[in-house]
Fold these 2 entries.
Entry 1:
Amino acid sequence: MNMGPEKVFFSSLATAKRARVDEALDRLLPREDEAPRNVHAAMRWSVFAGGKRFRPILVLTVGETFGAPEEQLLQTACAFELIHTYSLIHDDLPSMDDDDLRRGKPTCHVKYGEAAAILAGDALQTLAFEIVSGDDQLSFETRVRLISEISRAAGTPHGMVAGQEHDLEAERKQIDYQHLEAIHRSKTGALITAAARCGAIIAQCSSSDLATITDYGSNLGLLFQITDDLLDVTSTAEALGKTPGKDARAHKATYASVFGIDQARERAQQAHNDAQAALKRINQPTDNLCAIADFLLTRES
Amino acid sequence: MNMGPEKVFFSSLATAKRARVDEALDRLLPREDEAPRNVHAAMRWSVFAGGKRFRPILVLTVGETFGAPEEQLLQTACAFELIHTYSLIHDDLPSMDDDDLRRGKPTCHVKYGEAAAILAGDALQTLAFEIVSGDDQLSFETRVRLISEISRAAGTPHGMVAGQEHDLEAERKQIDYQHLEAIHRSKTGALITAAARCGAIIAQCSSSDLATITDYGSNLGLLFQITDDLLDVTSTAEALGKTPGKDARAHKATYASVFGIDQARERAQQAHNDAQAALKRINQPTDNLCAIADFLLTRES
């Protein structure tokens, strides 16, 4: 496969950070040989099922852009991956999206049973908050701000759980552009935006930089979801690690189904432009943040 | 019904506190007419299904014993009820304990469907952490300590989720006394102990008082579980608000099945004595804390 220069750049950046995140996750997660083994094995199965670590990389990259050392960012970065993984486990359950395959592997409930999958998701959410509250490299004030950000982004009425419910309710319904964007702003956008914000908060950046990063993060979230929807239509199972075309069969409203592929691509390009425009307002080198946006626009999985 | 003096005392104490907790929960929970309505309705359904508010009352009573004003305790008290309610919703699911009735009413998934029940539990857990992190009556340090306590008590390897998994694994197995107590120390004991500790932490009590309260709380947790198991055997559906005899039919290991009823009653009396003995080491009036232990020993629902 040929990669353009922006992909090579992101790829080396991401590979290094992903390895550091994976090491930290391994250290922070309970061991499989510690009871309750079944739940711990299920937690680890889903966390180490081959995720891109997009949210942790975003925390690290934003934080480092504003001068925070990696070790102060790493636990919060992992907390985002735990929240994300918990949501995947619960969303895949039979009563929700009923997915058997995720990242090319059996989903958590297929491998460990529904009860263990529900508990593993529950415990991953709890662990995310435990990790941030216990991160003694950060001031108490910073930890409280991070927990407040993560909880609002994960819950209702404007966070991830709200988005999943809106998404379930929208199945088999004709929905318009505003409705679709509202779903995704909460379902995936809120957590991605919060990841960007938390990197900036740990770096104690100014409130105007935080506002800019919020703008960047929110466009990144939109871009992420549009390209995710497009990949479901255009990609192969091999590249995607899950069955493509699933959204259409589930009668899910997606950017591809609401806009058509060409217009969805234009909308992705616009979100990319808006993210890049936000970065121009920052007085720090933002090459790595640019690379994340470039990667999302052109990704193939 | 005739009530002994200890029940009258606890009853009036509990009624007043329960009303304050319910008001606060109503204020803190998202409104049913705010989207996602189905999940918000499911959250409220389970929170307001008639719980005794035992954990919040414990937070309030311990905190007030050591001089904390009620308004500083109330949000943390509510956070415990939200964590407890989330665990009930998930434990009742078909793949877990498969319960249709809770406190005399249809369980959350029976009333709102499994997807909404899973999401309502998820969102209640998130909200618990959001509430504590946002409680600006407390210092940042106190909030971090509370979140750390709650998350350890709710998660794995020693908290509530671990206990639920141990409990599921123990079904249809012969288990001994040590194993049973280990299950319940995590499944119900950890959160009850943490509720007592968090009241003491908000009141900024000394570390020796905190250790004493931990001892009291852990005996209270044991007492709570033993009398819960006994009520499942000896009570009527009307008094209990759920189908009695359910544990035996599910082949659950309980204090009644492992010890027999008489010995389980003795074990309850011992836990009560130990809780009272702990309170004698505290240099504050502990009448209300005594009343809670008395109530648990003699409760009928």
Entry 2:
Amino acid sequence: MIFKLEATDGRARTGSIHTTKGTIDTPVFMPVGTQASVKSLDPKDLTALNAQIILGNTYHLYLRPGVELIKDFGGLGKFMGWDGPILTDSGGFQGFSLGRLMKTDQDGIEFKSHLDGSSHLFTPEKVIDYQESLGSDIVMPLDWCVELPNDLDTLKMAVKRTTSWAERSLNVKSNDQYALFGIVQGGTEKTLRELSAKQITKLDFDGYSIGGLSVGETKSKMYDIASFTAQLLPENKPRYLMGVGSPEDLFESVAVGIDMFDCVLPTRVARNGSLFTSNGRINIVGKRFRAMNRPIEAECDCYTCMNFTASYLSHLFRAKELLGYRLASIHNLRFITNLMTNMRNSIQIGEFKDYKKRFLNEYRPTNESIRIDQKQKWLDIKNENFGK
Amino acid sequence: MIFKLEATDGRARTGSIHTTKGTIDTPVFMPVGTQASVKSLDPKDLTALNAQIILGNTYHLYLRPGVELIKDFGGLGKFMGWDGPILTDSGGFQGFSLGRLMKTDQDGIEFKSHLDGSSHLFTPEKVIDYQESLGSDIVMPLDWCVELPNDLDTLKMAVKRTTSWAERSLNVKSNDQYALFGIVQGGTEKTLRELSAKQITKLDFDGYSIGGLSVGETKSKMYDIASFTAQLLPENKPRYLMGVGSPEDLFESVAVGIDMFDCVLPTRVARNGSLFTSNGRINIVGKRFRAMNRPIEAECDCYTCMNFTASYLSHLFRAKELLGYRLASIHNLRFITNLMTNMRNSIQIGEFKDYKKRFLNEYRPTNESIRIDQKQKWLDIKNENFGK
């Protein structure tokens, strides 16, 4: 993997990541394909919406269909029919997010499967091996992610363990077919972020991730720590802010020099009928869309907006027709990939700040109470149907 | 609408139906798009699998989003982005199949909405008006469909009322933009079928439907009555066997000179993971598919088989990924449209009987107990989530 820094505008920057499976223009948003599928979309859909790289979740794929099966099929890309680059996570975050962490010690993380309750020990070494089996192009080492806020001792331990696991991960990397990123932890403690960044950037990783954010802290705290951490990372390597992806978060993070993002938000909220527009998210089952004889977003060039009215989409959601989930997911992801293209263009001509201001002036971020509602909806579904 | 009879082979026949929205080669299978969507598929999918005409359900569309809204949008095709021909049913069958019939008398059928319990009287006149609003290309008059077996008096009444409603429907047809078909009832009583066919074919319809079959009778009885009724219908008009669509049923019915078919079976069983192959239906979550590194059906040219292994499809169903439902639906519908193409070709060269024999020799129809299981599964889902 080669990273080329191309243009800067303030701290914002554009670049390109060259992999054996294609070039990725940064800043980039990576759609999430947890279980070998970006939910409801096929590979043609992903290409059409200009997804340059997608993300797979090692924990889920390890449990089902199994990394050995995927290896036998020539890797995750071959298995799911996607021929572009793939980034895989380490599974560490799932132990945290699924609440399936049984125990963690210096050796690794022991999970309880969300499918059958069986136990699985993920060590740094195993996790590299799993991702090599998946044929990942950008691999994450096992890290220890803790929720926020948290006590200083826990945050310190997370940094210490993450560094030790990073070293062990580098030691077992068996070939140069893929890139391996280091992950910075440290919660909301700047001294710990500084310590973690120092330790991790001393190691020769191909890129650097900012982990342990978007896990319970406020938005302003998240922006502050992302900004603080980004400037501790080397200029000449890609910077990846893990798990972040609302439009406003993307702008704030690109502004401080972050290059890569992933988030389930665009597809998850799409399946709830929540769609991005330049004015903010709308709820497609709302009364005002029932007879609206134009696309959700007049300027949008996605398959959904080019072919269907808001009224039709509203009908599909009211009637709980499967097609609705796909059309909404296509729109939301295309909205985000268009946003990233526009950001890159504006950086290249030195007008990122103006573009950001203009966008955020029109875009009303989803307020905290709706966000919590949506999150609760998702948690309810998750509890019914664990791990989907 | 113009129908041209082209070739015959025994009683089997090919032809073409010319509508303002395109030509339909017969015998033809029409995918069902109950609620303005062939479940999980988009219009591009339908074109790719060579759907020449699709079916919409007046009852469902009347209730949601409403026929007036669809009329305002320029018709069902415009509303859902499908530019080919559309056949709509009259709603009569839904009163029967959804068990939502409140009462029926000579005036019409009164329904209780599956959405909110409200009452709706469907008269022959209203039903023509609704379908004109939907912009249907082939319209069905209101008929009275009764379950089988049934007593002679009920069957007689169904014939009488269906004829009277047919006359009233013809009287209110306001223009020649669409075709109107007559429907033959009469259950499994040949004398009644004869009577109904005589009465209906005396009226100047553009085509003739065989209704009241596949509603509880055995397969052999269904074949017998379809065969008996088909030869009572004029040669120069299309014959439509309503609600029939398993591979073996299609062969038997084409063999006796039927031209048009519709059925939810291919898409409904697809969503249960049941997929057509030349040897019969398979259950994709079965153990033998877990690691199968080839398509479900090696010879199939559908998007699913051209791009994905049985293993991947099996994984999607195990993981309950939405993409699985769409890929399975594409495959099953393409299997059927390919079957119809092959039947047409074999009729044209006088080899229909050979082709039928060859196909049925390899194809093991789903046995009665599995069929009943599948039906029960569907009824369970329907009772939970009525009308979907």
